[in-house]
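User: I'm writing a tutorial on reading structure tokens. Could you give me a worked example: one chain, its sequence, then its tokens, then a sentence or two explaining what the tokens reveal?
Assistant: Sure. Here is the example chain.
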Amino acid sequence: MRKFWALGTLAAFIVAAGSMLAAQQQPAAKPAAKKPAGAAQVGNDREGAGAYTIRVQLPAPVAAAFKQAYPNATIRGTSKETERGKTVYEVESVEHGRARDLIYAADGQVIELEEAIAPGSLPPAVTASLRRLHPKATILVAERMTRGATVRYELQVKDATTRALAFTPDGQLVAPERN
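And here are its predicted structure tokens:
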């Protein structure tokens, strides 16, 4: 009797484990869709999990402006948004391992540029202000934000806590922008 109970328990375990494995398997990936006309180059994401698909087709002036300004960049994603009542297009890209996000007006004019930069390339005034305010802080992420003629540097730093800080090029602390 114990032999049958043990075999029954083993069989139930095998069936349950098989069901769990089958539930965890994902369906096969669909073939990649064709790139819409007027869209710029699309490449793989950094993790290599597959092609990042374009969410929205860029207007021809936006695609042309991006391709002219950044011919070697790979587009990781695009989106259509409304900012201050106007339709804008965001292009997320990467070039030589550096992330770059741009916001374009429909006519192809750049509204905002956000670029990841090496902490060592921050202006000396920004670095000095950071060291004065948070002497033990480590810079995790540094970005240069350009909107029109206004430039600011946004930093993610870690000391006792992780925090976002923003500075003008002359080292003045300002409030970070909220998305």
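What the tokens reveal: Residues 117-179 form one domain. Helices lie at 2-24, 60-69, 124-133.
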